[in-house]
């Protein structure tokens, strides 16, 4: 592994996310591999793949990351496409995985690589299907990726909606002070400026003065869920799973989206299993 690599530290909520991804990937691969008429070529995709392992905040123990978990799924996926923008994390992935004909590791911006190199390999009319995991480092994901995934009708998707990072960077109680660069990043993540209408409401106070009030995390997440269904075109987008830190604050919402009705039942069973353990 790279000598200077500092592994990401994760809390209990991230360990739960890893278990959820592992369980769904296993069910997904079993179902897709069993299809024979027609036979499907199913692939695993991760846009922010990381170094392959993490370190727990409490004990400092190493924890296997989602790409390596996916590689251990049986029956295996036919291909694995792993992307990360950090060269040291890409090097770590290469060293941990080694040379494999079924694993493709891409250094660079997943917003470009997924659209240009990976998604075209998972065309619906070619009987290809994929499970795509998008766990962005804050507001580093472009809506074009999410929209394209929804329109393809061949991808199931897990998406980390980083509400804590969004609140810290953009959704301030006094929005006038937010940096224009952060506003542009939020607009790219959301897809347009309609996020403003869902994040804030103009109300009158006791003295009949107009004032801007910030909406709740739940309201913003609900609006994003609607975008996944109505704008991106995913058929099934169950209520996301709120992931909380040790203080009970929501760190992010874990969304799942799929073109298939059967997928929702599977993921809801998994979500319900972990719903009370998100802190």
Description:
The longest helix has 23 residues, at 12-34. The chain is globular, with a radius of gyration of 19 Å. It has helices at residues 12-34, 66-71, 87-97, 110-118, 143-152, 163-169, 180-190, 195-199, 217-231, 261-274, and strands spanning 9-10, 41-46, 53-56, 62-64, 79-84, 103-107, 128-134, 155-161, 200-204, 210-214, 241-244, 250-257. It is built from ten helices and twelve strands. The chain has 279 residues and is of the alpha/beta class. Strands 6-5-2-7-8-12-11 form a seven-stranded mixed β-sheet, sandwiched between helices. The chain has a three-stranded mixed β-sheet with strand order 1-3-4. The protein has a single domain (9-169, 217-277), classed as Vaccinia Virus protein VP39 (Rossmann fold, 3-Layer(aba) Sandwich), CATH 3.40.50.
**CATH level-four homologous superfamily name:** Vaccinia Virus protein VP39
Overall geometric form: globular
Low-confidence stretches: none
Report the sheet-strand fraction: 15-25%
């Amino acid at each position: 592994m790279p000598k200077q690599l500092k592994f990401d530290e994760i809390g209990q909520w991230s360990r739960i996310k890893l278990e959820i991804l592992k369980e769904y990937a296993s069910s997904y691969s079993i179902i897709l591999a069993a299809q024979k008429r027609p036979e499907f070529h199913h692939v695993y995709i991760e846009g922010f793949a990381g170094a392959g392992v993490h370190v727990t905040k409490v004990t400092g123990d190493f924890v296997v990351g989602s790409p390596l978990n996916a590689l251990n799924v049986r029956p295996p996926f036919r291909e694995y496409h792993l992307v990360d923008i950090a060269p040291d994390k890409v090097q770590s992935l290469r060293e941990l995985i080694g040379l494999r004909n079924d694993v493709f590791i891409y250094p660079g911006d997943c917003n470009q690589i997924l659209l240009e190199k990976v998604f075209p390999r998972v065309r619906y009319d070619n009987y290809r299907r994929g499970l795509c995991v998008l766990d962005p480092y804050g507001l580093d994901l472009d809506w074009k990726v999410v929209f394209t995934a929804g329109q393809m009708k061949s991808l199931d998707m897990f998406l980390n909606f980083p509400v804590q990072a969004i609140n810290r960077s953009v959704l301030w109680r006094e929005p006038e002070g937010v940096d224009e660069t952060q506003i542009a990043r939020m607009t790219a993540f959301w897809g347009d400026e309609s996020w403003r209408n869902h994040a804030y409401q103009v109300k009158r106070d006791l003295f009949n003065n107009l004032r801007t009030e910030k909406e709740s995390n739940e309201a913003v997440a609900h609006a994003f869920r609607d975008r996944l269904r109505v704008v991106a075109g995913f058929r099934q987008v169950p209520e996301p799973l709120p992931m909380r830190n040790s203080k009970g604050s929501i760190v992010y919402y874990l969304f799942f989206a799929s073109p298939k009705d059967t997928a929702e039942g599977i993921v809801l069973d998994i979500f319900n299993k972990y719903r009370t353990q998100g802190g």
